[in-house]
């Protein structure tokens, strides 16, 4: 059973494709304090690789990338310092 992660903000960007998935995620994180957790919901499979890679490059911690149903994935990111 995965450990429960406290989600501070959720961003549903289903229907968006790269690079907008990363841009919208990055903008949402910029409004948050360091250490806070953002859950991003996407339905564009390439975003499940591109968004986490970009988030790590920006100094954030990717906690989880998981398929949640037939069409959607969640990307859970903790904002870096």
Domain tally: 1
Assigned CATH class: Alpha Beta
Q: Report strand %.
A: 25-35%
Helix content: 25-40%
Strand order of the largest sheet: 1-2-4-3
Largest sheet entry = 4 strands, mixed
What's the rounded overall pLDDT mean? 95
User: Uncertain regions: pLDDT < 50 for 5+ in a row?
Assistant: none
Give the topology string: H per helix, E per strand.
EHEHEE
Q: Which geometry do the CA atoms define? A: globular
Number of helices: 2
Which architecture per CATH? 2-Layer Sandwich
Instruction: State Rg.
Output: 11 Å
N- to C-terminal distance: 28 Å
3D structure, described in words:
The structure is a single chain. The chain is α+β, with helices and mostly antiparallel strands and 81 residues long. The chain has a single domain (9-78), classed as TusA-like domain (Translation Initiation Factor IF3), CATH 3.30.110. The chain is 27% helix and 28% strand. The chain has two helices and four strands, in the order E-H-E-H-E-E. The chain has helices at 20-30, 47-57; strands at residues 9-12, 37-42, 61-67, 73-78. The protein has a four-stranded mixed β-sheet with strand order 1-2-4-3, with helices on one face. Helix 1 (20-30) crosses helix 2 (47-57).
């Amino acid at each position: 059973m995965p450990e429960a992660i406290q989600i501070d903000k959720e961003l549903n960007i289903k229907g968006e494709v790269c690079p907008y998935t990363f841009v919208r995620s990055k903008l949402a994180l910029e409004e948050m304090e360091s250490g806070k957790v953002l859950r991003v919901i996407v339905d564009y499979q390439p975003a499940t690789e591109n968004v986490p890679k970009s988030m790590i490059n920006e100094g954030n911690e990717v906690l989880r990338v998981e398929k949640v149903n037939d069409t959607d994935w969640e990307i859970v990111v903790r904002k870096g310092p």
